[in-house]
Protein backbone atom coordinates (compact mmCIF):
# COMPACT_ATOMS: atom_id res chain seq x y z
CA UNK A 1 0.00 0.00 0.00
CA UNK A 2 2.81 2.35 0.99
CA UNK A 3 4.60 1.53 -2.28
CA UNK A 4 1.41 2.01 -4.33
CA UNK A 5 0.97 5.45 -2.75
CA UNK A 6 4.53 6.38 -3.64
CA UNK A 7 4.20 5.07 -7.19
CA UNK A 8 0.99 7.01 -7.62
CA UNK A 9 2.56 10.21 -6.26
CA UNK A 10 5.33 9.75 -8.82
CA UNK A 11 2.88 9.54 -11.72
CA UNK A 12 3.28 5.82 -12.39
CA UNK A 13 -0.47 5.32 -13.01
CA UNK A 14 -1.90 7.17 -15.97
CA UNK A 15 -5.39 7.49 -17.43
CA UNK A 16 -5.77 8.39 -21.12
CA UNK A 17 -5.70 6.58 -24.45
CA UNK A 18 -2.72 4.28 -24.87
CA UNK A 19 -1.55 1.47 -27.05
CA UNK A 20 0.28 -1.28 -25.21
CA UNK A 21 3.24 -3.20 -26.52
CA UNK A 22 0.86 -6.10 -27.16
CA UNK A 23 -1.09 -3.88 -29.57
CA UNK A 24 -4.09 -3.64 -27.24
CA UNK A 25 -5.76 -0.29 -26.65
CA UNK A 26 -5.93 0.65 -23.02
CA UNK A 27 -7.30 3.59 -21.08
CA UNK A 28 -4.83 2.86 -18.27
CA UNK A 29 -1.06 2.81 -18.38
CA UNK A 30 1.52 1.82 -15.78
CA UNK A 31 4.70 3.77 -16.30
CA UNK A 32 7.41 2.29 -14.09
CA UNK A 33 10.12 4.33 -15.79
CA UNK A 34 9.32 6.81 -13.02
CA UNK A 35 11.02 4.37 -10.62
CA UNK A 36 14.56 5.13 -11.74
CA UNK A 37 13.92 8.84 -11.47
CA UNK A 38 12.87 8.54 -7.82
CA UNK A 39 15.63 7.01 -5.70
CA UNK A 40 13.35 6.68 -2.63
CA UNK A 41 10.65 4.79 -4.48
CA UNK A 42 13.23 2.60 -6.21
CA UNK A 43 14.75 1.74 -2.82
CA UNK A 44 11.30 0.98 -1.38
CA UNK A 45 10.47 -1.30 -4.31
CA UNK A 46 13.81 -3.12 -3.82
CA UNK A 47 13.11 -3.53 -0.09
CA UNK A 48 9.61 -4.89 -0.85
CA UNK A 49 11.22 -7.46 -3.19
CA UNK A 50 13.63 -8.44 -0.38
CA UNK A 51 10.69 -8.83 2.01
CA UNK A 52 9.08 -11.31 -0.37
CA UNK A 53 12.35 -13.21 -0.70
CA UNK A 54 12.46 -13.50 3.11
CA UNK A 55 8.80 -14.37 3.60
CA UNK A 56 8.84 -17.04 0.88
CA UNK A 57 12.23 -18.30 1.89
CA UNK A 58 13.51 -18.16 -1.68
CA UNK A 59 16.86 -19.84 -2.10
CA UNK A 60 19.32 -18.77 -4.85
CA UNK A 61 22.95 -18.04 -5.61
CA UNK A 62 22.71 -15.19 -8.14
CA UNK A 63 20.29 -12.46 -9.16
CA UNK A 64 19.54 -11.34 -12.74
CA UNK A 65 17.43 -8.32 -13.69
CA UNK A 66 15.51 -8.66 -16.97
CA UNK A 67 17.15 -6.11 -19.31
CA UNK A 68 16.95 -3.23 -19.14
CA UNK A 69 14.25 -1.80 -16.92
CA UNK A 70 14.69 -4.24 -14.02
CA UNK A 71 18.46 -3.97 -13.83
CA UNK A 72 18.59 -1.08 -11.33
CA UNK A 73 16.13 -2.91 -9.07
CA UNK A 74 18.19 -6.10 -9.27
CA UNK A 75 21.32 -4.12 -8.39
CA UNK A 76 19.71 -2.70 -5.26
CA UNK A 77 18.39 -6.12 -4.18
CA UNK A 78 21.88 -7.61 -4.64
CA UNK A 79 23.29 -4.85 -2.53
CA UNK A 80 20.77 -5.31 0.29
CA UNK A 81 21.17 -9.11 0.36
CA UNK A 82 24.88 -9.12 -0.51
CA UNK A 83 24.26 -11.57 -3.33
CA UNK A 84 26.22 -11.61 -6.60
CA UNK A 85 24.55 -10.35 -9.75
CA UNK A 86 24.77 -11.61 -13.32
CA UNK A 87 23.95 -9.51 -16.37
CA UNK A 88 22.03 -10.84 -19.34
CA UNK A 89 22.83 -8.92 -22.52
CA UNK A 90 20.08 -8.20 -25.03
CA UNK A 91 22.32 -9.24 -27.87
CA UNK A 92 25.62 -11.11 -27.69
CA UNK A 93 28.67 -8.82 -27.89
CA UNK A 94 30.07 -8.70 -31.38
CA UNK A 95 33.66 -8.69 -30.07
CA UNK A 96 35.78 -10.33 -27.38
CA UNK A 97 34.04 -13.14 -25.50
CA UNK A 98 30.72 -12.85 -27.43
CA UNK A 99 28.98 -13.84 -24.18
CA UNK A 100 25.28 -13.32 -23.49
CA UNK A 101 25.71 -13.66 -19.71
CA UNK A 102 28.22 -11.49 -17.88
CA UNK A 103 29.63 -12.16 -14.42
CA UNK A 104 31.15 -15.21 -12.72
CA UNK A 105 28.92 -18.22 -12.30
CA UNK A 106 29.02 -21.96 -11.92
CA UNK A 107 26.62 -24.11 -13.93
CA UNK A 108 24.12 -25.92 -11.71
CA UNK A 109 23.70 -22.98 -9.33
CA UNK A 110 20.37 -21.19 -8.79
CA UNK A 111 19.45 -17.80 -10.23
CA UNK A 112 16.58 -15.57 -9.15
CA UNK A 113 15.10 -13.37 -11.87
CA UNK A 114 13.84 -9.86 -11.12
CA UNK A 115 11.41 -8.00 -13.37
CA UNK A 116 9.53 -4.71 -12.97
CA UNK A 117 6.22 -5.38 -14.73
CA UNK A 118 5.12 -8.79 -16.02
CA UNK A 119 2.59 -8.81 -18.85
CA UNK A 120 2.77 -12.05 -20.81
CA UNK A 121 6.14 -13.12 -19.44
CA UNK A 122 7.85 -13.40 -22.81
CA UNK A 123 10.91 -11.27 -21.98
CA UNK A 124 11.36 -13.28 -18.78
CA UNK A 125 11.25 -16.53 -20.74
CA UNK A 126 13.84 -15.18 -23.16
CA UNK A 127 16.12 -14.27 -20.24
CA UNK A 128 15.61 -17.61 -18.51
CA UNK A 129 16.28 -19.57 -21.66
CA UNK A 130 19.62 -17.80 -22.09
CA UNK A 131 20.52 -18.60 -18.46
CA UNK A 132 19.39 -22.21 -18.73
CA UNK A 133 21.51 -22.57 -21.87
CA UNK A 134 24.49 -21.75 -19.68
CA UNK A 135 23.52 -24.56 -17.29
CA UNK A 136 22.09 -22.28 -14.59
CA UNK A 137 18.99 -23.36 -12.66
CA UNK A 138 16.21 -20.82 -13.00
CA UNK A 139 12.70 -21.36 -11.76
CA UNK A 140 11.81 -18.34 -9.60
CA UNK A 141 10.82 -14.87 -10.77
CA UNK A 142 10.11 -11.88 -8.58
CA UNK A 143 8.35 -8.82 -9.95
CA UNK A 144 6.94 -5.50 -8.76
CA UNK A 145 3.67 -5.71 -10.71
CA UNK A 146 1.89 -8.65 -12.29
CA UNK A 147 -0.46 -7.21 -14.91
CA UNK A 148 -2.45 -10.44 -14.76
CA UNK A 149 -2.42 -10.95 -18.50
CA UNK A 150 -1.47 -14.59 -18.57
CA UNK A 151 2.13 -14.22 -17.34
CA UNK A 152 1.70 -16.66 -14.42
CA UNK A 153 0.37 -19.44 -16.67
CA UNK A 154 2.83 -18.88 -19.46
CA UNK A 155 5.70 -19.03 -16.97
CA UNK A 156 4.23 -22.05 -15.16
CA UNK A 157 4.23 -23.92 -18.48
CA UNK A 158 8.02 -23.50 -18.45
CA UNK A 159 8.22 -24.55 -14.78
CA UNK A 160 8.81 -21.03 -13.54
CA UNK A 161 7.08 -19.65 -10.45
CA UNK A 162 6.09 -15.97 -10.37
CA UNK A 163 6.00 -13.95 -7.13
CA UNK A 164 4.81 -10.35 -7.21
CA UNK A 165 4.60 -7.40 -4.83
CA UNK A 166 1.32 -6.29 -6.33
CA UNK A 167 -1.04 -6.95 -9.22
CA UNK A 168 -3.23 -5.08 -11.68
CA UNK A 169 -6.40 -5.73 -9.63
CA UNK A 170 -4.70 -4.62 -6.40
CA UNK A 171 -3.58 -1.39 -8.09
CA UNK A 172 -7.05 -0.70 -9.48
CA UNK A 173 -8.61 -1.39 -6.03
CA UNK A 174 -6.14 1.03 -4.48
CA UNK A 175 -7.02 3.67 -7.11
CA UNK A 176 -10.72 3.20 -6.30
CA UNK A 177 -9.96 3.67 -2.59
CA UNK A 178 -8.24 6.99 -3.20
CA UNK A 179 -11.04 8.07 -5.58
CA UNK A 180 -8.76 8.20 -8.59
CA UNK A 181 -11.04 5.83 -10.55
CA UNK A 182 -14.56 4.45 -10.13
CA UNK A 183 -15.41 0.73 -9.89
CA UNK A 184 -16.93 1.08 -13.39
CA UNK A 185 -13.60 2.34 -14.71
CA UNK A 186 -11.86 -0.65 -13.13
CA UNK A 187 -14.26 -2.99 -14.92
CA UNK A 188 -13.64 -1.16 -18.21
CA UNK A 189 -9.86 -1.37 -17.84
CA UNK A 190 -9.97 -5.09 -17.04
CA UNK A 191 -12.28 -5.64 -20.01
CA UNK A 192 -9.83 -3.84 -22.34
CA UNK A 193 -6.99 -6.00 -21.08
CA UNK A 194 -9.01 -9.14 -21.70
CA UNK A 195 -9.39 -8.22 -25.40
CA UNK A 196 -7.51 -10.90 -27.29
CA UNK A 197 -4.39 -9.98 -29.19
CA UNK A 198 -4.62 -11.42 -32.71
CA UNK A 199 -2.03 -13.90 -33.91
CA UNK A 200 -0.38 -11.19 -35.97
CA UNK A 201 -0.34 -9.01 -32.85
CA UNK A 202 -1.77 -5.94 -34.58
CA UNK A 203 -5.48 -6.16 -33.97
CA UNK A 204 -5.65 -3.01 -31.95
CA UNK A 205 -2.52 -1.17 -32.97
CA UNK A 206 -3.00 2.54 -32.88
CA UNK A 207 -0.71 4.40 -35.26
CA UNK A 208 -1.19 7.90 -33.90
CA UNK A 209 2.11 9.65 -33.18
CA UNK A 210 0.96 10.37 -29.60
CA UNK A 211 0.69 6.67 -28.88
CA UNK A 212 3.75 5.70 -30.82
CA UNK A 213 5.82 8.10 -28.75
CA UNK A 214 4.93 6.06 -25.68
CA UNK A 215 6.52 2.98 -27.21
CA UNK A 216 9.80 4.73 -27.81
CA UNK A 217 11.47 5.20 -24.48
CA UNK A 218 14.29 2.96 -25.67
CA UNK A 219 14.77 4.44 -29.12
CA UNK A 220 16.33 7.92 -28.87
CA UNK A 221 16.25 8.53 -32.63
CA UNK A 222 12.53 7.95 -33.05
CA UNK A 223 11.69 9.78 -29.85
CA UNK A 224 13.62 12.80 -31.12
CA UNK A 225 12.00 12.67 -34.57
CA UNK A 226 8.45 12.15 -33.32
CA UNK A 227 8.86 15.10 -30.95
CA UNK A 228 9.99 17.26 -33.87
CA UNK A 229 7.20 15.98 -36.12
CA UNK A 230 4.57 16.74 -33.50
CA UNK A 231 5.88 20.15 -32.55
CA UNK A 232 6.47 21.35 -36.14
CA UNK A 233 3.57 19.36 -37.62
CA UNK A 234 5.58 17.97 -40.47
CA UNK A 235 6.56 14.58 -41.84
CA UNK A 236 8.71 16.00 -44.61
CA UNK A 237 12.38 15.09 -45.05
CA UNK A 238 14.05 17.05 -47.82
CA UNK A 239 16.80 15.34 -49.83
CA UNK A 240 19.30 18.16 -50.35
CA UNK A 241 21.09 16.55 -53.30
CA UNK A 242 23.08 19.67 -54.19
CA UNK A 243 26.80 19.80 -54.80
CA UNK A 244 27.81 23.16 -53.28
CA UNK A 245 27.74 23.90 -49.57
CA UNK A 246 26.37 27.41 -50.18
CA UNK A 247 23.44 25.98 -52.16
CA UNK A 248 22.58 23.62 -49.31
CA UNK A 249 22.75 26.35 -46.66
CA UNK A 250 20.63 28.63 -48.83
CA UNK A 251 18.09 25.81 -49.30
CA UNK A 252 17.91 25.10 -45.56
CA UNK A 253 17.40 28.79 -44.79
CA UNK A 254 14.28 28.67 -46.96
CA UNK A 255 12.79 25.34 -45.89
CA UNK A 256 13.76 24.81 -42.24
CA UNK A 257 10.26 25.43 -40.87
CA UNK A 258 8.79 22.67 -42.99
CA UNK A 259 11.13 19.74 -42.35
CA UNK A 260 11.70 17.18 -39.63
CA UNK A 261 14.92 15.90 -41.28
CA UNK A 262 17.48 17.11 -43.79
CA UNK A 263 18.92 14.30 -45.87
CA UNK A 264 22.39 14.66 -47.36
CA UNK A 265 24.75 12.76 -49.61
CA UNK A 266 27.91 14.23 -48.17
CA UNK A 267 30.10 12.60 -50.86
CA UNK A 268 28.51 14.60 -53.70
CA UNK A 269 29.55 17.94 -52.17
CA UNK A 270 32.45 19.55 -54.01
CA UNK A 271 33.56 22.08 -51.38
CA UNK A 272 33.03 20.16 -48.13
CA UNK A 273 34.31 21.97 -45.03
CA UNK A 274 33.87 21.75 -41.27
CA UNK A 275 32.44 25.27 -41.27
CA UNK A 276 29.66 23.91 -43.43
CA UNK A 277 28.96 21.15 -40.89
CA UNK A 278 28.99 23.66 -38.02
CA UNK A 279 26.53 25.90 -39.89
CA UNK A 280 24.24 22.95 -40.55
CA UNK A 281 24.39 21.87 -36.93
CA UNK A 282 23.51 25.38 -35.78
CA UNK A 283 20.56 25.52 -38.18
CA UNK A 284 19.41 22.03 -37.10
CA UNK A 285 19.58 23.00 -33.45
CA UNK A 286 17.83 26.34 -33.90
CA UNK A 287 15.09 25.14 -36.21
CA UNK A 288 14.69 21.59 -34.91
CA UNK A 289 15.43 19.02 -37.56
CA UNK A 290 17.72 16.00 -37.66
CA UNK A 291 20.76 15.62 -39.91
CA UNK A 292 20.43 12.48 -41.95
CA UNK A 293 23.40 11.21 -43.98
CA UNK A 294 22.15 8.80 -46.61
CA UNK A 295 25.43 6.87 -46.84
CA UNK A 296 23.75 3.48 -47.42
CA UNK A 297 26.43 1.46 -45.65
CA UNK A 298 26.87 -2.09 -46.95
CA UNK A 299 30.09 -3.76 -45.89
CA UNK A 300 31.66 -5.82 -43.14
CA UNK A 301 31.16 -4.35 -39.68
CA UNK A 302 34.75 -3.22 -39.23
CA UNK A 303 34.76 -1.32 -42.53
CA UNK A 304 31.42 0.28 -41.74
CA UNK A 305 32.79 1.40 -38.39
CA UNK A 306 35.74 3.06 -40.14
CA UNK A 307 33.46 4.62 -42.75
CA UNK A 308 31.30 6.02 -39.97
CA UNK A 309 34.05 7.37 -37.73
CA UNK A 310 37.00 8.16 -39.97
CA UNK A 311 37.94 9.58 -43.37
CA UNK A 312 37.30 13.14 -44.48
CA UNK A 313 33.67 13.26 -43.39
CA UNK A 314 33.72 11.60 -39.93
CA UNK A 315 30.01 10.99 -40.43
CA UNK A 316 29.24 9.81 -36.89
CA UNK A 317 30.53 13.08 -35.45
CA UNK A 318 27.73 15.13 -36.99
CA UNK A 319 24.99 12.94 -38.56
CA UNK A 320 22.13 12.01 -36.25
CA UNK A 321 21.15 9.11 -38.47
CA UNK A 322 22.33 7.14 -41.48
CA UNK A 323 20.99 4.49 -43.85
CA UNK A 324 22.27 0.91 -43.86
CA UNK A 325 21.72 -1.90 -46.36
CA UNK A 326 20.73 -5.18 -44.73
CA UNK A 327 22.47 -7.15 -47.48
CA UNK A 328 25.61 -7.77 -45.37
CA UNK A 329 23.66 -9.53 -42.60
CA UNK A 330 22.46 -8.61 -39.14
CA UNK A 331 25.76 -9.05 -37.31
CA UNK A 332 27.20 -6.10 -39.23
CA UNK A 333 24.25 -3.97 -38.11
CA UNK A 334 25.34 -4.45 -34.50
CA UNK A 335 28.33 -2.22 -35.39
CA UNK A 336 25.96 0.70 -35.08
CA UNK A 337 25.15 -0.04 -31.46
CA UNK A 338 28.65 0.81 -30.32
CA UNK A 339 28.74 3.94 -32.46
CA UNK A 340 25.36 5.12 -31.17
CA UNK A 341 26.31 4.37 -27.56
CA UNK A 342 29.58 6.30 -27.81
CA UNK A 343 29.28 9.56 -25.86
CA UNK A 344 31.18 11.59 -28.47
CA UNK A 345 28.90 10.72 -31.35
CA UNK A 346 26.03 12.66 -32.87
CA UNK A 347 24.47 9.41 -34.07
CA UNK A 348 21.15 8.43 -32.54
CA UNK A 349 20.33 5.53 -34.80
CA UNK A 350 19.95 4.22 -38.31
CA UNK A 351 17.39 3.14 -40.89
CA UNK A 352 17.56 -0.17 -42.71
CA UNK A 353 16.85 -0.20 -46.41
CA UNK A 354 13.99 -2.65 -46.86
CA UNK A 355 12.96 -1.63 -50.36
CA UNK A 356 14.40 0.76 -52.94
CA UNK A 357 12.31 3.03 -55.13
CA UNK A 358 14.08 2.22 -58.37
CA UNK A 359 12.78 0.21 -61.28
CA UNK A 360 14.05 -3.39 -61.24
CA UNK A 361 15.52 -3.12 -57.71
CA UNK A 362 16.42 -6.49 -56.17
CA UNK A 363 14.95 -5.50 -52.81
CA UNK A 364 11.88 -7.68 -53.31
CA UNK A 365 10.55 -11.17 -52.47
CA UNK A 366 12.05 -12.24 -49.12
CA UNK A 367 14.27 -9.14 -48.80
CA UNK A 368 12.01 -6.63 -46.98
CA UNK A 369 10.75 -9.34 -44.62
CA UNK A 370 14.26 -10.47 -43.68
CA UNK A 371 15.30 -6.84 -43.23
CA UNK A 372 12.46 -6.41 -40.73
CA UNK A 373 13.72 -9.48 -38.82
CA UNK A 374 17.13 -7.82 -38.52
CA UNK A 375 15.60 -4.57 -37.28
CA UNK A 376 13.62 -6.41 -34.59
CA UNK A 377 16.90 -7.54 -33.06
CA UNK A 378 18.11 -3.97 -32.55
CA UNK A 379 15.06 -1.94 -31.49
CA UNK A 380 17.19 0.57 -29.58
CA UNK A 381 19.07 1.98 -32.52
CA UNK A 382 17.24 0.90 -35.66
CA UNK A 383 14.65 3.63 -36.06
CA UNK A 384 12.84 2.03 -38.97
CA UNK A 385 13.01 1.50 -42.66
CA UNK A 386 13.44 3.05 -46.05
CA UNK A 387 10.59 1.40 -47.89
CA UNK A 388 7.96 1.89 -50.55
CA UNK A 389 5.09 0.31 -48.61
CA UNK A 390 4.96 0.04 -44.80
CA UNK A 391 6.87 -3.21 -44.44
CA UNK A 392 5.98 -4.23 -40.88
CA UNK A 393 3.12 -3.89 -38.40
CA UNK A 394 5.11 -2.48 -35.50
CA UNK A 395 4.29 1.17 -34.70
CA UNK A 396 7.50 1.67 -32.73
CA UNK A 397 9.38 1.84 -36.03
CA UNK A 398 9.09 4.76 -38.48
CA UNK A 399 8.59 4.09 -42.18
CA UNK A 400 10.42 6.57 -44.43
CA UNK A 401 9.69 6.66 -48.12
CA UNK A 402 11.52 8.24 -51.04
CA UNK A 403 10.10 8.30 -54.55
CA UNK A 404 7.61 11.12 -53.98
CA UNK A 405 6.67 13.77 -56.53
CA UNK A 406 3.25 15.35 -56.96
CA UNK A 407 3.67 16.05 -60.69
CA UNK A 408 6.09 13.59 -62.30
CA UNK A 409 6.26 9.78 -62.31
CA UNK A 410 9.90 9.09 -63.25
CA UNK A 411 13.25 10.72 -64.02
CA UNK A 412 14.26 8.51 -66.95
CA UNK A 413 17.10 7.04 -64.86
CA UNK A 414 15.18 4.41 -62.91
CA UNK A 415 13.67 6.56 -60.17
CA UNK A 416 9.94 5.92 -59.68
CA UNK A 417 7.83 8.65 -58.14
CA UNK A 418 4.27 8.60 -56.81
CA UNK A 419 2.02 11.11 -55.09
CA UNK A 420 1.99 11.97 -51.39
CA UNK A 421 -1.49 10.49 -51.12
CA UNK A 422 -0.23 7.19 -52.53
CA UNK A 423 2.91 7.21 -50.36
CA UNK A 424 1.23 8.06 -47.05
CA UNK A 425 -2.45 7.08 -47.29
CA UNK A 426 -2.26 4.01 -49.50
CA UNK A 427 1.28 2.76 -48.86
CA UNK A 428 1.08 3.80 -45.17
CA UNK A 429 4.50 5.37 -44.83
CA UNK A 430 5.14 7.97 -42.13
CA UNK A 431 7.83 10.28 -43.48
CA UNK A 432 8.14 11.41 -47.09
CA UNK A 433 11.61 11.99 -48.53
CA UNK A 434 11.41 14.55 -51.30
CA UNK A 435 14.34 15.76 -53.38
CA UNK A 436 14.12 17.34 -56.81
CA UNK A 437 10.38 18.12 -56.60
CA UNK A 438 11.39 20.73 -54.03
CA UNK A 439 15.04 21.54 -54.74
CA UNK A 440 14.41 22.22 -58.45
CA UNK A 441 11.23 24.23 -57.91
CA UNK A 442 11.02 27.89 -58.91
CA UNK A 443 9.82 28.84 -55.45
CA UNK A 444 11.56 26.37 -53.16
CA UNK A 445 10.00 27.69 -49.96
CA UNK A 446 6.42 27.57 -51.28
CA UNK A 447 6.96 24.07 -52.66
CA UNK A 448 8.39 22.80 -49.36
CA UNK A 449 5.37 24.25 -47.58
CA UNK A 450 3.00 22.61 -50.10
CA UNK A 451 4.65 19.17 -49.62
CA UNK A 452 4.77 19.53 -45.84
CA UNK A 453 1.12 20.52 -45.60
CA UNK A 454 -0.09 17.73 -47.88
CA UNK A 455 2.18 15.16 -46.21
CA UNK A 456 1.07 16.06 -42.70
CA UNK A 457 -2.62 16.13 -43.54
CA UNK A 458 -2.36 12.67 -45.16
CA UNK A 459 -0.52 11.35 -42.10
CA UNK A 460 -2.87 12.65 -39.44
CA UNK A 461 -6.03 11.71 -41.34
CA UNK A 462 -4.87 8.12 -41.78
CA UNK A 463 -6.70 5.76 -39.45
CA UNK A 464 -4.08 3.01 -39.38
O1 LIG B 1 15.06 3.73 -52.59
C1 LIG B 1 15.53 4.85 -52.45
C2 LIG B 1 16.23 5.19 -51.30
C3 LIG B 1 16.65 6.50 -51.15
S1 LIG B 1 17.32 6.95 -49.65
N1 LIG B 1 15.33 5.80 -53.40
C4 LIG B 1 15.77 7.07 -53.26
O2 LIG B 1 15.50 7.88 -54.14
N2 LIG B 1 16.48 7.44 -52.14
C5 LIG B 1 17.05 8.79 -51.97
O3 LIG B 1 15.97 9.71 -51.90
C6 LIG B 1 17.92 9.23 -53.14
O4 LIG B 1 19.27 8.93 -52.90
C7 LIG B 1 17.65 10.72 -53.19
O5 LIG B 1 18.55 11.39 -52.35
C8 LIG B 1 16.25 10.90 -52.66
C9 LIG B 1 15.17 11.02 -53.70
O6 LIG B 1 15.33 12.17 -54.45
P1 LIG B 1 14.26 12.64 -55.57
O7 LIG B 1 14.91 13.81 -56.20
O8 LIG B 1 14.08 11.48 -56.51
O9 LIG B 1 13.01 12.97 -54.80
TrEMBL record:
The keyword Transferase applies. InterPro entries: Aldolase_TIM, OMPdecase, OMPdecase_AS, OMPdeCOase_dom, OPRT, Or_phspho_trans_dom, PRTase-like, PRTase_dom. The keyword Glycosyltransferase applies. Keywords: Decarboxylase, Glycosyltransferase, Lyase, Multifunctional enzyme, Pyrimidine biosynthesis, Transferase. Residues 235-451 form the Orotidine 5'-phosphate decarboxylase domain. SUPFAM superfamilies: PRTase-like, Ribulose-phoshate binding barrel. One of its GO terms (biological process) is 'de novo' pyrimidine nucleobase biosynthetic process. The active site is at residues 294, 296, 299. It holds the Pfam family Pribosyltran. Its EC number is 2.4.2.10, 4.1.1.23. GO terms for molecular function: orotate phosphoribosyltransferase activity; orotidine-5'-phosphate decarboxylase activity. Substrate binds at residues 241, 263, 357, 415, 435-436. Pathway: Pyrimidine metabolism; UMP biosynthesis via de novo pathway; UMP from orotate: step 1/2; Pyrimidine metabolism; UMP biosynthesis via de novo pathway; UMP from orotate: step 2/2. PANTHER family: OROTATE PHOSPHORIBOSYLTRANSFERASE. In the C-terminal section; belongs to the OMP decarboxylase family. In the N-terminal section; belongs to the purine/pyrimidine phosphoribosyltransferase family. HAMAP family: PyrE. This is Uridine 5'-monophosphate synthase.
Amino acid sequence: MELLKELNNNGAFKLGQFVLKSGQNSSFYIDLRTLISSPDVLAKAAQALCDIIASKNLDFDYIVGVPYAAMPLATLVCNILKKPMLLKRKEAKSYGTKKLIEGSYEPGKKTLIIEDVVTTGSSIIETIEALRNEGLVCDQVLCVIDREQGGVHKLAAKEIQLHSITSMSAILDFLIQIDFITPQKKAQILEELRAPVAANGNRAICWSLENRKLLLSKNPLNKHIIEIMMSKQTNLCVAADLTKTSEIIELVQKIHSFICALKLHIDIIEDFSWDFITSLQTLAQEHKFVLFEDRKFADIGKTMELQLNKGIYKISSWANMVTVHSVAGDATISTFREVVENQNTAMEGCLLIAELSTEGALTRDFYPKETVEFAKKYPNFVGGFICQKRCHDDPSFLYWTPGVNQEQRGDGAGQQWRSIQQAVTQDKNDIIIVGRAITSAQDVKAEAERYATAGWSSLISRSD
